[in-house]
Amino acid sequence: MSEVEVLKLRRSDLRRCAELEQVLFDGDDPWSRAAFSAELDQGHHYVGAYLGERLIGYAGLAVNGRPPHAEAEVHTIGVDPEHQGEGVGKALLRALLSRADEHRATTFLEVRTDNEAAITMYRDHGFEIVGLRPRYYQPSGADAHTMRREAVEVS
Length: 155
Prior knowledge:
Elements: E1 4-8, H1 14-24, H2 33-41, E2 45-51, E3 54-64, E4 71-79, H3 88-102, E5 106-112, H4 116-124, E6 128-137, E7 142-149
């Protein structure tokens, strides 16, 4: 089996992103192909995890402002259920954080309060819980933690 590569997300893979969204976020308003396209059109940073030519995960980040006041927001991370637990999510997160670090940006994200695996991964990468957003995910009404990672100086 080939190794997973994290590369700039290809527009030709947006349909696959939407398919994965349907599987991963079925109870919570999954993103459409058009939503992913709009994210790219706005210039947000999106990467894909590729196993050969097949997209098995995706992640996106928005960066606003300039150092020392830049902020970044993780918009999404999704990994094909067949490849969860293999480090794909960590590789995608590291790619996003690398971009945030280039801008010396404090990074924020929301995560379901019941997603212990994701919360642990984020904590392992320097995030801390800083707030609660009741009924953040719709239509399920699931709560979300807001998490923050302070800006990292890159040399």
